[in-house]
Design a protein that fits this description.
The protein is α+β, with helices and mostly antiparallel strands. The protein is about 50% helix and about 5% strand. The chain has helices at about 10-20, 30-65, 65-95, 125-135, 145-155, 165-185, 215-235, 240-260, 275-295, 305-330, 340-365, 375-385, 395-400, 400-430, 435-455, 460-465, 520-525, 545-550, 570-580, 615, and strands at about 1-5, 195-200, 205-210, 490-495, 515-520, 530, 535-540, 555-560, 565, 585-590, 600, 605-610, 610, 630-635. The strands form 6 sheets. The protein has a 4-stranded antiparallel sheet. Strands 1-4 form a two-stranded parallel sheet. Strand 12 and strand 13 (about 610) form a beta hairpin. One of its GO terms (biological process) is signal transduction. Keywords: Coiled coil. This is Rhophilin Rho GTPase binding protein 2.
């Protein structure tokens, strides 16, 4: 939602808005989170360096026929690929650093996973936009230096948003400005030389594009990442903190879903449809975990109904994390998601499933069906716990028969014990997971509690009493749902509103330079009429009037009357200015819409070192001082009569992400995420 009508003091309003948002960022804060992001940025630069070296070596390998040179190149490639594996391992370690995102006092709850912010390069809009303002809008670009500085400051602040709602609003503000910037400066018929570079948050591979699609998608991703960090940072020892965490994870899922539906072909692994779908499920699973913790916060009452209810709630949490884990182990997601994440999801699957069995065991072993109990209600509750019971058993038999009740209770507690042991075993297999002492303590305490319950009912008739505990059906009273935050529709003021109404003065429209026409009283009264809102348009022009002889044309837009800018003025305001015209007349500035057939950049993939520039980041070969060649083809443009309609033409295309070679033939063999190389790149591949 964008406000296009300028206030009387637009400059001061923009500055005030920007300053209020800047308070939400902390670019110099030496926190654990900021240090982690700095390490991520350093790793990204090292990955670029190794990719440059590998691209050059692969080119040389193809170009030479000298066997000795080939041997040397292959040796160099092995070193480079080894370095890339080490860097990828370090990046995975950063993505596994959960402790910096957790609440410092959090020791009683299982840690949550937060997304790291995508890193980007600093961009200088100044020179390209000044040139565009001069060439396209025929205005002095130097007069917009303040607006350009505000825009660059806003983008720079978005690289280090604070972990709060203010930080989200900062990102949302820039996201809302991007459509305005796109309409003002990104023409469908020419490139402006600005390259937006973002790094994949999982692989560190840079992606570079000249349009704003990558920029918009990356800002949305970072909004979701920031919400996830707010959720992990919340104090889950309090009801308010848990509600804040639930809302944050639901909003993170909502933003990711918006990203998935809006930007479907971004050539970056972390924003591919499959990866975003998995991240949505992860955020909702963590919200469901917090909903369970909220229910358990006051304590679980040792009553039959309360225990059965909590058992099904725990089973629901186990179920959603099992679904997340199944997503994480599918190709190509498993090649890019940190092992820590999939292991944590599997630990939670086993842990909460074991808790569900423990609660059912407690309901059966600690309680008996008394004469005052509602037999029908308990039978209904227990029947909802099981999808299928062993043949010959019914819920009412289990409730009424003391031995049968005890037999099933012990079966559930055995599954609880074995499940907790499995969770501990999986925990011990992951190097990064073992660093979370709080998680280890929680898993051990849960295991010990189940063991104590089992020992209370252990006897020598174990083998004769043995029965397998059925699976527990999940059920929840409060299901985690995606929530699109209102922050994604923040209202902003166009930085470049002085250029005029965006519906008219945009990059897709082309006009003649402003020209002066002298208006006399008789022209004002009988020579022509005005229509439109802002800017006003000349209609019903008398071809014999003096203004027409001076160059005024039918359909011209009046952009200035005398020395007064009239781009934002309506008919009544312009008429008021013309009302005082004396016999000597006054000069007005007008522009005419040009109707031409501009050329359109051809859609083509550009390669550098056998890597598409849109993926490998033109950084592998791009020189800031060089201008890219422009291949063009003639494309029909909308006629003058349809100047106000939405332009259907799209600008330069994006390149789909290269896929893995399913045959397994890689330029090097490694089990960690791979980079696109000459052996696996296919120009027609899609992710």
């Amino acid at each position: 939602s964008c406000a296009l009508k300028p206030p009387k003091s637009s400059s001061s309003s923009s500055v005030s808005e920007l300053n209020s948002l800047r308070r939400g960022c902390s670019p110099n804060a030496q926190t654990g989170r900021s240090k982690l992001q700095n390490k991520r940025a350093t790793l990204n630069q090292q990955i670029i360096k190794q990719m440059r070296m590998r691209a050059g070596a692969e080119n040389l390998l193809k170009a030479t026929n000298n066997n000795k040179v080939k041997e040397m190149v292959l040796l160099e490639l092995s070193y480079v690929n080894s370095d890339l594996q080490l860097l990828m391992g370090q990046l995975e370690g950063l993505n596994s650093s959960m402790e910096v995102y957790q609440n410092t006092e959090e020791t009683a709850n299982i840690p949550l996973i937060a997304l790291g912010l995508k890193e980007t390069k600093e961009i200088d809009f100044s020179s390209p936009f000044k040139d565009f303002i001069l060439e396209h809008y025929s205005e002095d670009g130097r007069s917009f230096e303040e607006e350009l500085a505000d825009l660059m400051d806003l983008r720079q602040s978005c690289r280090t948003p604070s972990r709060s709602e203010a930080g989200v609003e900062l990102l949302a503000s820039y996201y809302s400005h991007l459509p305005l910037i796109e309409s003002r400066f990104f023409s469908p018929t020419r490139q402006n030389g600005i390259f937006f570079t973002w790094y994949d948050s999982f692989t560190g591979v840079p992606v570079c594009q000249q349009n704003l699609l990558l920029e918009k998608a990356s800002i949305l991703f970072n909004m979701a990442a920031l919400y996830s960090q707010i959720g992990t940072r919340s104090d889950r020892q309090t009801r308010v903190g848990l509600e804040q965490a639930i809302a944050a994870f639901q909003k993170a899922a909502g933003v990711l879903n918006l990203l998935k539906e809006t930007f479907t072909h971004i050539p970056s692994y972390d924003m591919s449809p499959a990866m975003v779908s998995m991240l949505i499920r992860l955020m909702l699973a963590q919200a469901q975990q917090c909903l369970f913790e909220k229910m358990a916060l006051p304590g679980v009452s040792n009553q039959f109904y309360a225990l059965i209810r909590m058992a099904q709630e725990a089973a629901k949490v186990s179920e959603v994390f099992d679904q997340v884990h199944q997503f994480m182990i599918q190709t190509p997601i498993k090649d890019n998601v940190p092992l820590f994440w999939s292991t944590m999801s599997l630990v939670k699957t086993n842990h909460y499933r074991s808790m569900a069995h423990y609660f059912v065991a407690a309901a059966l072993l600690d309680h008996e069906l008394g004469p005052r109990d509602d037999e029908d209600q308990q039978e209904k509750m227990l029947s909802q716990v099981y999808d299928q019971l062993p043949e010959g058993r019914t819920p009412i038999d289990i409730l009424k028969n003391k031995d049968e009740r005890k037999r099933f209770g012990k079966a559930h507690i055995r599954r609880a014990v074995s499940g907790h042991e499995e969770a501990l075993r999986i925990y011990s297999l992951c190097e990064h997971l073992t660093k979370l002492e709080a998680l280890k303590d929680i898993l051990k305490a849960s295991h010990q509690r189940s063991l104590e319950k089992y020992s209370d009912f252990e006897n020598e008739e174990e083998f004769t009493d043995y029965v397998d505990a059925p699976d527990i059906t999940s059920k929840t009273e409060h299901r985690a749902e995606m929530e699109v935050p209102a922050a994604t529709k923040v209202k902003v003021i166009d930085f470049f509103q002085r250029l005029g109404p965006l519906a008219i003065f945009s990059a897709k429209q082309k006009w003649t330079p402003p020209r002066s026409v002298r208006i006399y009283p008789e022209d004002r009264d009988e020579g022509f009429t005005l229509k439109g809102e802002s800017p006003v348009q000349v209609v019903s022009l008398d071809p014999h009037c003096q203004a027409a002889g001076d160059g005024l044309k039918e359909g011209d837009y009046i952009v200035a009357v005398g020395k007064t800018d009239s781009k934002w003025m309506g008919v009544s305001e312009v008429m008021q200015l013309l009302k005082d015209v004396d016999e000597e007349g006054t000069e007005i500035q007008v522009v005419s819409l040009m109707d031409s057939n501009p050329s359109m950049p051809a859609k083509s993939a550009t390669f550098c070192g056998n890597l598409p520039k849109t993926y490998s980041m033109i950084c592998l070969a791009y020189n800031d001082e060089e201008k890219p060649l422009k291949n063009r083809k003639v494309t029909k443009k909308s006629s003058f009569l349809s100047w106000g309609m939405k332009n259907k033409m799209k600008s330069a295309s994006m390149l789909n992400l290269p896929t893995m070679d399913h045959s397994g033939a890689m330029s090097w063999n490694k089990p960690i995420p791979t980079f696109p190389s000459s052996s696996c790149y296919n120009s027609d591949s899609s992710h």
